[in-house]
Amino acid sequence: MTNQELINRLVQRFSKFEQVEGITLAGSMAFNTSDENSDLDIDVYITKEIPPEERKKIAEEFADYMEINNTFWGPGDEWKLKNSLTSVDIIYLDINWINDHMRNVIDKHEAWVGYTTCFWHNVVDSKILYDKNNILEKLQDKYTTKYPVELKQNIIAKNYPILRDNMSSYYYQIDKALKREDYISINHRVAALFASYFDILFAINEIRHPGEKKLIKIINNTCRLIPENMEENITNILKNCALVNNEILNDISKLIDNLDDLLKEQKLLDPLPFKANVK
After folding, report:
1. pLDDT tens digits along 88-101
2. Hey, which end of the chain has fewer CB within 10 Å, N or C?
3. pTM of the full predicted structure?
């Protein structure tokens, strides 16, 4: 069975549920970034839960291994297809929550700490497979729009101070964790630093955040404005993170210094809350 045949059959099965408003193909296969390790990502937009036992019946038609009702990152199912290396990752999204979220982020310019525009990217750039009442088409039409300047400014204002300049910044937390030799904390805070850093970088470029995977490749291919030595700085941070080396702080400073230069060049650095001249 080809991927397209599988997709068609899944749409046919899930669209029979009254609570299903829409179905989209998401992930790398929809966004043209897939490789041999890519999953088949399906988003099912619902008004209320599809009972897990009903979802299990569908999975049993296609999969020889399945995990039904994983709720670690929201309700979802994961399968391994029969006689195939392909995995299927199905996420169930509340259509009312999505509507509210899109209004909050795009219309009201609400910024998060990291990943602010990921759902915007997912909704607008996914391929609609089923759309019972044209809700998804209307969302895509409405929000395929210019990146709001106010949202860009708010993302920077929300995420920039906690990189290094704030007393509760990731830089200070990593510094403390190094002194305690707290390896878990170091890794956790480095990952969080990157989440805020990339949120800023995609905002500077007025590009919707594509999520967690293949970020360096996506940035190099799509972003016009990239801080100097970004990839080298990131590689050095990760290497020294693995070695628990104090040089990681110098590498982080280089990464943020180069981001500072880009923000100043684009006249986006000041005024920001909690700004301090701390290096």
Report:
1. 999 999 999 999 99
2. C
3. 0.90
